[in-house]
DNA sequence: GCACGCGCTTGCACCAAGTGCAACAAACTT
DNA sequence: AAGTTTGTTGCACTTGGTGCAAGCGCGTGC
């Protein structure tokens, strides 16, 4: 059911745009009531964003599984690679990335997701930056994770604009190199 | 009038919280109609965020006024310093920063503001990263600006949590150093 | 077979943000 | 004095989102 609604909604989104598609239209097209839609999804944006909390946990687990002596950049790069694997359909991902361009509310939710990921990943990064275990939250770790996510977003964006031709990992590395030069 | 509404609304926000304060309450407290509120502000969030576009233009102007041979990090650091001057009341700034913590919609708008700033500042940074004038938009410049804004946000956040005691510029430098180490 | 409980679905009423439109009043111009 | 602008307002409407309670199918125990 969840998947069925998602499929129906995504078709409408790419056809009419995200903002121009109302929840009533989605519900009607999926053959359910408007109320039931909100039973499955907390908001319209959730259809596109999926379960970002679970994905964030996956990234966190991947990050913490990296060797303890690995540098922060190396570790977070490796952790981000699990995202490439977990994203299934390539053309669908391109469609999602395209929706972001003209849907402010969608971008906003995506950025909020990034904020939650920040809090999730910051503790491990803080350790890798040399802080003792159990130290107070350090703004430098937050800034680091936010910057890494910014590089990731820029890489994904450029990958989408290349139509899937460019290598996301390489784009990410280039972005990171620009910061550190 | 603009300022009058802002004062009234901010008082309600700090008293009841941002989400719990309705536009009707603000309008009633300010002695105007609900419709007139939306004549002055496009949204409830705009009351708190102020005119971010104008502020972004100020930063852009400051950035482009820096010497052409200055490095990207040096130039953007200097440009951000004009923000510290343009923010007037210190205690009010602390109150605003506090509102962010429990108002998701507010955070989201703030992040959208950052996105617009990204587009505003990226061209100049791209030049400073070595791209020829008139080149196609480079994701590295976008990533760079986003990372710089992340450092800025982290610095402001840490400054707010210190109660205004810490030096924002120093916090910013520390965040940048963590990225580049 | 039948009542009972459980979970999913739905309709309904409601709230709050935001927009478009037209009316209205006061001030200002010619 | 007539006309024009400008600010303000009321009203109706759209959309996202929530709370509540009724209904409905369905399997279980008696």
What does this molecule look like?
The structure is a homodimer of 181-residue chains. Chain A has 181 residues and is mainly α. Chain A contains ten helices and no strands. Chain A folds into two domains: 2-46, Arc Repressor Mutant, subunit A, CATH 1.10.10.60; 51-180, Orthogonal Bundle (Tetracycline Repressor, domain 2), CATH 1.10.357.10. Helices cover 76% and strands 0% of the residues of chain A. In chain A, helix 7 (90-101) crosses helix 9. The A-B interface holds A 104, 107-109, 111-112, 114-115, 129, 139-144, 146-147, 149-151, 153-155, 157-158, 171, 174-181 and B 104, 107-109, 111-112, 114-115, 129, 139-144, 146-147, 149-151, 153-155, 157-158, 171, 174-181. The first copy, chain A, binds a DNA duplex (30 and 30 nucleotides) through residues 22-24, 32-36, 38-39, 42-44.
How would you summarize what this structure contains?
The structure is a homodimer of 181-residue chains. Chain A is mostly helical. In chain A, 76% of the residues lie in helices and 0% in strands.
- N-C termini distance of chain A: 49 Å
What order do the SSEs of chain A take from the amino end to the carboxyl end, as H and E? HHHHHHHHHH
- Tell me the overall shape of chain A: globular
Class per helix and strand makeup of chain A: mainly alpha
The share of residues in extended strands of chain A comes to under 5%
Integer count of domains of chain A? 2
Helix content of chain A: over 70%
State the name of the first-level CATH class of the largest domain in chain A: Mainly Alpha
CATH-defined fold name of the largest domain in chain A: Tetracycline Repressor, domain 2
As a whole number of angstroms, the C-alpha radius of gyration of chain A is: 18 Å
The protein's oligomeric status is homodimer
Q: Write out the CATH superfamily name of the largest domain in chain A.
A: Tetracycline Repressor, domain 2
- Averaged pLDDT of chain A, please? 91
Low-confidence spans of chain A: pLDDT under 50, at least 5 residues? none
Named CATH architecture of the largest domain in chain A: Orthogonal Bundle
- Count, helices of chain A: 10
Most residues in contact: chain pair: A-B, 34 and 34 residues
């Amino acid at each position: 059911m969840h998947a069925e609604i998602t499929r129906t909604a995504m078709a409408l989104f790419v056809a009419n745009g995200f903002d121009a598609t109302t929840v009533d239209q989605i519900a009607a097209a999926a053959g359910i009531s408007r109320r039931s839609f909100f039973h499955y999804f907390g908001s319209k944006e959730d259809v596109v964003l999926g379960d970002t909390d679970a994905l964030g946990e996956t990234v966190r687990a991947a990050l913490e599984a990296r060797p303890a002596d690995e540098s922060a950049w190396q570790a977070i790069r490796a952790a981000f690679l699990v995202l490439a694997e977990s994203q299934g359909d390539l053309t669908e991902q391109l469609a999602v990335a395209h929706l972001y361009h003209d849907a402010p509310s969608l971008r906003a939710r995506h950025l909020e997701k990034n904020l939650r990921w920040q809090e999730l990943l910051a503790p491990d990064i803080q350790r890798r930056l040399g802080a003792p275990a159990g130290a107070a939250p350090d703004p430098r770790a937050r800034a680091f994770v936010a910057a890494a996510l910014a590089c990731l977003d820029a890489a994904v964006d450029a990958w989408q604009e290349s139509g899937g031709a460019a290598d996301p990992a390489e784009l990410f590395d280039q972005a990171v190199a620009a910061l550190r030069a």
